[in-house]
Each structure stands twice: as C-alpha cells, then as structure tokens.
Amino acid sequence: MATEPTAGETTGLVFHPMDQFVIKPLFGDGAVGIFTVTNLTLWMAVAVLAVIGLLVIGSSSRQSIPTRVQSIAELCYGFIRKMVEDVAGRDALPYFPYIMTIFMFVLMANFVGLLPGAFTTTSHIGVTAVLALLVFVSVTVIGFVKHGAGFLGLFWISAAPLPLRPILALIEVISYFVRPVSHSIRLAGNMMAGHAVIKVFAAFAPMIIISTGIGLAVTPLSILAISAIFALEVLVAFIQAYVFTILTCVYLKDALHPAH
Amino acid sequence: MEGDIATMGAYIGAGLASVGMGGAAVGVGNVVGNFLAGALPNPSAAAGQTATMFIGIAFAEALGIFSFLVALLLMFAV
C-alpha cells in the first residue's frame, strides 16, 4: 500500500465495517454521558415498543379464530412456556414472566437491528452484560433463598470419587463465575460479527463505479453475498435469542435443583 | 511504511485469532453431526432433544466467539 498509495485509496473499503457500532448522541454533538439520549437509547425504545405493540395488539381482541398478530403473540407465549417447562421444570413457572421478557426483548432488539440503517443494541457488550448479570445475580439469589447453604451442593459433586471432589469444586466455581461472561459475549459477539460481515460486503458493492475488467464482477457477487448473509442473520437473530433464553432456563434449573 | 513493530504484532495476532474460527466450526459440526447420527435412526425421539443440541452448539460456539473477541481487543484496545 505504501508503494501504490493511490491504488490503496481507490480499492480500499468505502467505510469502516465497525462504524455502525459507534454510539452517538441523538441531539447535538456533545459527549456521551449516563443520561445522554443516544442512538442506542432510541433503538432500545423501538425494540421495547415493538414488543409492547405485538403483545398488546395480539392480546387485545381475543378471538377463537385468531388474527395474524394474535397467532404470533400466542406462538411466542406457548414457545417460551414450553421451553421453561421442558428445560427448567414445572417449579420454574413462577419465573416464566421474566424469561419471556428477556426473550422478547432480545428477539426484538436483534430483529429491529437488522433493518437497514438501524442500530443493533444487542451488539454492544454493555447491553448484553447487563442482561446476563441480571440473570446471574437473580439466579444466585433464588438458589440461596430456596436452598440456603444447600445451594453450595451445586459445586460439590457427590457422584465423583472423594479425592477428586475439591478439584472438581474449584472447576465448578470457576465455570459458575464465567457464566455471565460467556452468556453476554455470545450474544454480542454473534450480533457484532454478523453485522460487520454484512458491512464488509456492502463496502465492496460500489466497486462497479471505480473498477474495470474483472472488478466489474465484484458488485453483483457482493450484492448476492449480502442477500445470503442477511438471510442467515435473520436466522441467527432468532437462534441467539433462543440460546440466550434457554441458557437462562438451564441456569435457573441449576438454582432450583442444585444437588448433582 | 508507517506504524511500529507493536502494531504489526497486534495485526498479526488479530489474524492468528481467526484460527479459532476453525475450531468453532469443528465443534459445531461435531455437535450437529452427532445429533443427526443419533436422531435419524429414531426421528420420533429427536424432537425432544433439539434444545439440548442448541445448548451444545452454544457452548461450542462461545469459544470461537472468544477468539473473535481477542482479535477485536488486539485491533482496537491494545
């Protein structure tokens, strides 16, 4: 690039693929503080409004032959309720509203973030870390409230031979505290990586303006790639919301039934 | 040429971190492949185990995401 500075400039990316994740104030150009209204605030609000809209409109006119919105709302409810029952057991059903809230928010934030020009709130580790830490803290509190010191039996694997148990206990404690890290990074990393890939191909799409010869094939190929990866990202947006929720259920099950 | 040897090392490290992607690919492929190998002889029992498969995928994939995180840290944080 140093020997051909002009060629490097013309064939380089039009914009940086990570530019889409910059948090900007919505009004003015001031510094971003705790209470600044940013694009992240806006798109979180859009996601919450989408959830409220879907569930309120879906449940407002309860008919025996459901409308389309009512079907989707019932589908979401039944899907999550079955998941909680299957994975965490029937005694986890009191915590179903919280799990449903998490699923709907993450799902809608992922889907809303896929709109062209939108900002993906779940691609920020700050957002997902709060969600994961809330799950971690509440699950730990539930475990101690329900079982007292017996909750520590989660780390003491009685099925293992006695000399191994302290070592296993150490590993279990470490893996317990790594949970919120992997829980949050999985969602944020998947969202960020997928959107960055879309933007990398999007930066190659205008090549038809500047290139000649074989370079002309880049534009149709990259538009094809964007479409394909966008379709994959719609799937990933759902699967990651599903995985986030199902892991919440698994952690909740550990808190409700700590004995190995 | 611009930049120093530390920047060069960071870029090389970020590139090397993408090797972790291959590991995640092997892991996820292993999980799903074994799931299908077990599910196809007995499809009626498979539906109840898809949740377990997704949990397995999530754990295998998380480590690949960690290598992506290492690359990001090298590119933007170091």
What does this structure look like?
The complex is a heterodimer of chains A (260) and B (78). Chain A has 260 residues and is mainly alpha-helical. Chain A has one domain. Chain A contains eight helices and no strands. Chain B has 78 residues and is an all-alpha fold. Chain B has one domain. Chain B is rod-shaped.
Give the SSE map.
The complex is a heterodimer of chains A (260) and B (78).
Chain A: H1 5-11, H2 39-60, H3 68-88, H4 96-113, H5 125-147, H6 165-204, H7 207-210, H8 218-256
Chain B: H1 5-17, H2 19-39, H3 43-46, H4 50-77
Number of strands of chain B: 0
- What is the total number of structural domains of chain A? 1
Mean pLDDT of chain A: 87
User: How many structural domains are formed by the residues of chain B?
Assistant: 1
Summary, kept brief:
Chain A is mostly helical.
List keywords for this structure.
heterodimer, A: mainly alpha, globular, disordered N terminus, B: mainly alpha, 4 helices, 0% strand, rod-shaped
